[in-house]
Amino acid sequence: MRAGEATNRSGCGGAACYVVDDDAAVRRSVALLLGSAGYRVETFEHGDAFLDFADQELPFGCVILDVHMPGSDGATVQRELVARGLPHPIVVITGHGDVSLAVQMVRAGARSVLQKPFSGNALLRATQEAMTLRDDSGRH
């Protein structure tokens, strides 16, 4: 479920970020951090809510994706984005230390994995790198 947008306040050009996590406190804190860095942020309480929102018209942006959620888990969401032709970079976040699933998601194209609790700087760096990789590849 969408919780809202943050304002654009810095040099990231107002790029979009989609935060998908079943933990309301994580969604809130990640949205505040990314919003303060200038990203436009949409939040979703589970993978199915994000997939209902994501279609071919989804503005390009970085998906901050939890691994373990009710309904469609992170790996399922990632596979569905690929199947829909949405090349959005993914930063995986996990609190369960499921290393094998995280490695599987990186092999399937996720840009990086962060284990909860992670620092704000680590998340901002991973998000920026994910967006930069897209810019460097020339795909839009």
TrEMBL record:
The modification 4-aspartylphosphate is found at D66. The keyword Cell membrane does not apply. InterPro entries: Bact_response_regulator, Sig_transdc_resp-reg_receiver. Pfam families: Response_reg. PANTHER family: CHEMOTAXIS TWO-COMPONENT RESPONSE REGULATOR, STRESS RESPONSE REGULATOR PROTEIN 1. Signal peptide: none annotated. Residues 16-131 form the Response regulatory domain. This is Response regulator transcription factor. It comes from the Bacteria. The keyword Phosphoprotein applies. The lineage of its organism: Bacteria, Pseudomonadati, Pseudomonadota, Alphaproteobacteria, Acetobacterales. Keywords: Phosphoprotein.
